[in-house]
Every structure is written in structure tokens, then in C-alpha cells.
């Protein structure tokens, strides 16, 4: 049984575009990326399910000729999850638009301070508390 190459290329292109859009800062782009990714994964499930077959009803057809119902169930589940996630992201984007007049995700203040400390190669206060307040110079002198 041969797989349709155009379906594989379509699914991989949709998944690649979806991942690219999910990594953006704008919540509307993240939402579009999530929907595109969901469609690509649904196509991938159907490709993995194999070729078409007869209805999977016991007693009406031979077991070897039946279609596999599991990929269809997985696609239906993916649609429901995508609908719920879409509603959640739409609510987040709308609330962000109300508060900030844009839907970009802002940097966290704590993340910025940690990034600044890492660039300066300094230990943070929480690191000093976790190590018991020992200094790095004391540790290197003991190790030598």
C-alpha cells in the first residue's frame, strides 16, 4: 500500500508553518499557528491510518477490508481540543487588546533581570541563598 506523497508534503508544510507562527509574540499569530498545526496533525493522523476501507461495523464486512476507526477518533479529539484552545487564546488576545491596545506578549521583569545577570555572569540572590551564601572564590580555593 503506497502513501500519497502530496498529502505528506502538505501535512509537513502545515506543521512547519504552524510551529513557526506559534513561536511569534503576537497572540493572533499564535492562534493562527495553532489552528494550522492542528490541521497538519489531523492530516498526519489520516495518513498514518492507512488507505480507505469499508465501514468498521462488525458483521457487515470482512475484518481485512475494514477501515481503522482509531485515526478518525483521534482527529475528532484533536478538533475538540483545538476548539477549546482557540476559545482560550481568543479570550487572552481580546483581554490583552483591552489592556494594552495590542496583543503582543510582554517580557517578564524577572526574566529580564535573570537574562541581565547571565550576561554579566553574576549569581543571583536566590542562588546565594540556595548555596548557603558561600562565595565562588571560597569554593575554588578549597578545591585547589
UniProtKB/TrEMBL annotation:
Database matches in InterPro entries: CPA3_antiporter_subunitC, NUOK/Mnh_C1-like
Renumbered residue ranges of the record's region Disordered: 119-144
Alphabetically ordered keywords of this record: Cell membrane, Membrane, Transmembrane, Transmembrane helix
Domain of life: Bacteria
Subcellular location: Cell membrane
Membrane topology: Multi-pass membrane protein
Record's compositionally biased regions (Acidic residues): 133-144
Transmembrane portions of the chain: 6-23, 30-53, 73-94
Predominant localisation class: membrane
Pfam families referenced in this protein's UniProt entry, alphabetically: Oxidored_q2
Signal sequence bounds: none
GO CC annotation: plasma membrane
Family stated for the protein in its record: Belongs to the CPA3 antiporters (TC 2.A.63) subunit C family.
Protein name, per record: Na(+)/H(+) antiporter subunit C
Source organism per UniProt: Aeromicrobium chenweiae
Lineage: Bacteria, Bacillati, Actinomycetota, Actinomycetes, Propionibacteriales
